[in-house]
């Protein structure tokens, strides 16, 4: 196997990881270049190639695979740079996406939003009413055709949408999950009467019940469809010019990659996929470590320039959920469970006049102009400016010394931000870091405690460019004793590593309505049908059938309940014993989530969804281990004044490139790497594990930074 390339685009920087044929890992970073993100994509690959002395053209042409974490669709939706979309739906159901769910305004909302609910208005519907057309048709819950499709009326509706300016058309008809015949005919009519229009049909995007969520998925797929398609075509064109002859692989929110052709067909799969790479990388490291080194139960904290993204792994496996959120809009696309907040190195420090206090984020300075210390015209203080002023960052060594930071500009910006509360620059910096760290700790509690996990039993993987600076402070707030900076300096581009190590993955699901006692024969007949669809999607991407591994899962609930629980399902042919095994797995998972004794078997059970995950390894590489270097002690290369609880004091600085397994240093200390630094607080120790990850062990009796 030759080298593979992983590229992840963030709000501030684009990261690239090259995985060599012997497992060697090399990182490259370049500023992100919105709206032409493909430029930053190529620049990051070139930067990584420069570090290994390989010209860009050779690096791309000889790559065995190029893997991409694409955030273009998410950015387009956030910034309202989407296509103008029309919706075709069943007569009488045009208001579904406006009505939403009863608790939609509160689901996934941050605490300050809920606390001041009266000050907020309901989110605007995804589409205005004049872009929604009803058609006469009706399918019953069992798939029977109740009202035939009025094709003449449908054609007239399509023409009205086109005349109104629709650039893409979404199709979602009631109960088409049971029989998609009308949706399929509408696709044909749109193709005939509005040629060249992007078409998004709910029965292809989501194959499960839930009118609102299915319709939302179809609409979002249409909104971002042309944006994602155009971007991927530009990236593929640039790669082809450089001699790359294989399919580009694109990360999905489900935690795997698909060929760009599949991503163009279902662009919604790329939504919120950027943060997923970090979880996949953590899982890969857990597999390599065999659960050793704290890699089994993990909370991931990916702090980049714009956001903090938090995920949870149990036994090295990321937690998954059956739905995805965009703001207050929920839709049915399986995804790895990642909680994101606007807390990154570029998050802006500002005075809130309404609350008469300092706030940090969610607004970000982005890549341009960036933090004040970048010297690119930015005048607003950010978390990175605070990190610089308190002494966490050496202004001469930022980004391997390629960017010299301007401390005077950072101090001016921080002093201006804190003037209203009487703070000078250092006081503002210290306050800003305490605020942002508290916000990040709360985000981790949402992802762990509110999901039934005690963070004190987990290791914290801190990565992204800013994650290692704040990982130990977060862990102390949460009672976590072990912080891992995965593969040291590669932590700053960890999501790109995760993208490069991801499997090819497709998820196929099927809505059912099965109640106990369950029929083994019925389950035995349904599983092969779903697996056949999943296998067809894999082979269409060029994956050999014998390389595909099938995983089954179900969604189950007690009868009379509304919400389901996902449960792994046994493989093979089903008999009564397999059915009992499935029931037992549901009861165990239900008790884990809601507590012992909360199950109610007397009510009976229901299966609402059968799901198949088909995966195949996209590559085969081993994370290298390092030799023990503890024969020679690790000596500091100097010291730097760092602001702590008792003011500014000298702190020893170590060169991370000289650290080896067996070395151990007691804090306070700073361990510097080319693209990030690890802050080690008082009474903590830091060392390196056999894989080259920096490990900070905390003693919770101290509260120093």
From TrEMBL:
Residues 214-505 form the Hydantoinase A/oxoprolinase domain. Residues 520-690 form the Acetophenone carboxylase-like C-terminal domain. It comes from Baekduia soli. One of its GO terms (molecular function) is 5-oxoprolinase (ATP-hydrolyzing) activity. GO terms for cellular component: cytosol. GO terms for biological process: glutathione metabolic process. This is Hydantoinase/oxoprolinase family protein. Coiled coil: none annotated. Residues 5-192 form the Hydantoinase/oxoprolinase N-terminal domain. InterPro entries: ACX-like_C (IPR049517), ATPase_NBD (IPR043129), Hydant_A_N (IPR008040), Hydantoinase_A (IPR002821), Oxoprolinase-like (IPR045079). It comes from the Bacteria.
